[in-house]
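Worked example 3. Consider a protein that binds PBG.
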Amino acid sequence: MNKEKTYPLNLRRSRQNLSIRNLLADVQLSSSQLIQPYFVYQGLNESEELKALSGQRQHTADSLLKEIEVGLENKINSVLLFIIPNKKSFHDFDYSFDTNIIENVKRNFGHDLVLMTDICLCSHTQDGHCGFTNKQGEILNDPSVKELARKSLQFAQAGVDVLAPSDMMDSRIAAIRNILNQNQLEKTLIMSYSSKFSSHFYGPFREAAQSTPSFGDRKTYQIDPRNLKDALHSSDRDALEGADILMVKPALAYLDIISKVKSKHSHLPLAAYQVSGEYQGLKLMAEHGLLDFDLALKETFYSIKRAGADLIITYGANRLGKEFS
Ligand code: PBG
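Given these inputs, the predicted complex is written out as structure tokens:
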């Protein structure tokens, strides 16, 4: 008689029920590692939904405070602000609206909240570029860095906990660290957008932040999507210049970069930015009935974490925060 061969349970043993799967999961995500971005606009009377980025809003100073409170109830303690002025110009940027917002948020939430702010020039410049340009349309590095340092100083003095330069000019981390130290602001952290790619996934954000360049593109300062070496070099440089947190952006199409930056800089926290196009893409699929938005979003958080990110900046932080508390 031919005895039928049996196959003993092997790998499936650890997959057999949810409690065992939870116990053995490699990735344990906490809501304290999720960062929620917000957009605040000068001259806006009432908060409105952002059409390009569903579920997100254009905030006034007041609606921002309310939304941060909702976030805190959902266990989201870190926020990244994009503050958008109503006047665009080529020079003499005025940051008083920005610093008022920062002071107001800090006055209301103090240390219950980690307040991060984007540092870039693109929502101030008339041409939408992340630095100053000359008549030939070239982006000028050093004058831009000087302005980024001036902006950083004012933001730090207003009480920001973490400055997040997203401009990609050379040497800005060193310049910002220097100006902070010279002004007894050693406690302010810098989260550098250290490996930031020139990506098409920023589309919805640029509409929201009014920062689409009026000519050319950002390829002379952001990293070419084909390049691993440049991305590693760029994070190495920012780590050396004194960044406290590194970042890879976007996240999902760049998981290999996350993994490699993490292994080279295991002593530094690493953030990954799940950018507007990545988020909105899932949303559009969900709206077509092709997937469950929350479950798919959660899966992307796990993959970003598994690749090596410690922190995730995502428009879905408030939405899913409670699930990770
Ligand atoms: C500004 C900035 C951008 C994003 C964050 N900061 C756009 C860009 O570089 O063009 C993108 C964020 C997103 O898409 O969610 N420099």
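Take a moment to read the result before moving on. The chain is about 40% helix and 15% strand. The chain has one domain: 29-324.
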